Amino acid sequence: MKILVTGAAGFIGFHVTQTLLRRGDDVVGIDNLNDYYDPRLKHDRLKILEKENGFSFYKTDIADRESMETIFKDTHPDCVIHLAAQAGVRYSLENPHAYIQSNIVGHLNILEGCRHTISVKRLVYASSSSVYGGNTKQPFSVEDRVDHPVSLYAATKKSDELMSECYARLYGIQCVGLRFFTVYGPWGRPDMAYFSFTQKILNDEAIPVFNHGKMKRDFTYIDDVVQGILASMSVEIEEDVPHKIYNLGNNKAEELSDFIAVIEQSLDKAAKKDYLPMQAGDVVETYADIETSAADLNYHPSVPIKTGIPQFIKWYKEYYKASKGN
Prior knowledge:
The structure is a single chain. By secondary structure, the protein is α/β, with parallel strands linked by helices. Helices cover 43% and strands 17% of the residues. Helix 2 links the parallel strand 2 (26-31) and strand 3 (55-59).
């Protein structure tokens, strides 16, 4: 199978692409390799992928309509896994236009590419747990209304879901949207809390603890997320409205203070904590109801933070030690 993966040099995209290649698929990767976070990580992920058989890569922006049209025409993929996006809740307060370009215009270009490419059988795309916004009922279910976003990032992800359902209805494109819940693990994103906490603790810097640590997140290990993504490529979809939404979370809300304690234990070093109030755009708790994902995707996350965090820290120390040696 030939699979087009956008955001292939990103955190989740890298792991998905590597898994697909190692099982024998051909992968066409797309990434703009921007500097939202340290581009060195993206280039180093890409170097690993380029050693695998069956991988080809286009450095381009999904918001570039002409470039995306050319790639679809030249590659004729069987499936599209669309993971490229402008990520980050807090950054959306600083640079809102980046989110419209990447998450709205870019998503439209992907939908149009699928619409006009007869070989494409399915689109799997990244949504986010942020679409649940101000909802207070826990855990979050895909049956819940998601009408009250608290960040522009969340609003763009909800827009992606609506656009995808529209194209599914109008053109019969099979679409699966995946609401990710705080994904972490090796080769992760430096803007995520677990990554920056590790960095700051090792550098004897204080870590910012928002809402005084009274926040909960459904931390989900990358290997579990990859399993859910791959399963969504073949899940059965109804013909009348070929659009499905699934939660990919760990089905357990961990308090931020407990999460920090696991990092401290793994590093064998106490953190200096700077307790701060809630930030604009944040929510107090995320917690995924994965009943539908378990039934349809055979999705059963198996990695708790006490296992996943040490795996991340092991990678972190090895990667940055190697980087210093170059």
